[in-house]
Amino acid sequence: MTQTTLVIMAAGIGSRFGGGIKQLAPVGPGGEIIMDYSIYDAMEAGFQEVVFIIRHDLEKDFKEVIGNRIEKILPVKYAFQELSDLPEGFTKPQGRTKPWGTGQAVLAVKDMVKNPFVVINADDYYGKEAFVKLHDYLIEQQEKAENTNPYEMCMAGFILKNTLSENGGVTRGVCNITENNVLQKVTETYDIQYKNGKLMGLDDDNNEVELDENCHVSMNMWGMYPCFLEELERGFKEFLSQVQEGDIKKEYLLPKIVDKMLSEGRANVRVLETRDRWFGVTYQEDKQSVMDAIHSLVAQGVYKEKLL
Question: What are the extents of the domains in the chain?
């Protein structure tokens, strides 16, 4: 039977743990954090192990808060994303303080993930449907994915209106897809929020664009195979070679990596629609609405009061 792995990007967690760190804020009736629900839903869908991507300086505290607890119910591995973890021939730019983005984060698991895997953000709630659909698709496509080029992938396609915050603008990867639900393009769009009854956002050039609230968006929930990690490694070197001197903010981001591969005809990405509502703590004010949503799901019987 094919094994599957859940990869959780958690290197963005702050160095101080407690209620002020959004990824670790209790939101469930039993003190659960958002990651608990993602892991629970992934296990229910059939995933057999979890890999946390963290920073070395957070390892001890991270294990105390969640890792040691999860190890009792599921095999756990740790990968580390560090600013200085660069290919031979490259050095950290002077003045840069943040890691290189989600592409570098996932690249950190290259030597430890040998199975089809799904990658998610630590502080996002995705719902049950997406985990089931991505897991089943990866299993069904396993033989094809190992023997074909372009790269086979899948992603959870959330409905834009189900991913908004009431407390300010959000960034989303807006997707263009075919009638057969094949991804054609991902466009990073910023500060998405309703203005005068219209859903508006900003493109890379800071131009305002109107959006369809029912369009599909990426929430960084991707289904991939280990061969993609080799592509990430090659692409990271190319990315670094193009970073201009003095640029300390440029990031190697999964949506832009996938979009580049699509434009070059080197990837095939199936968009698996989910109608579940996404939520997360983008703003401090979002915490209460997340807690209310979780408690409502518990009241409906979707989750137990004591989850894990």
Answer: 5-299
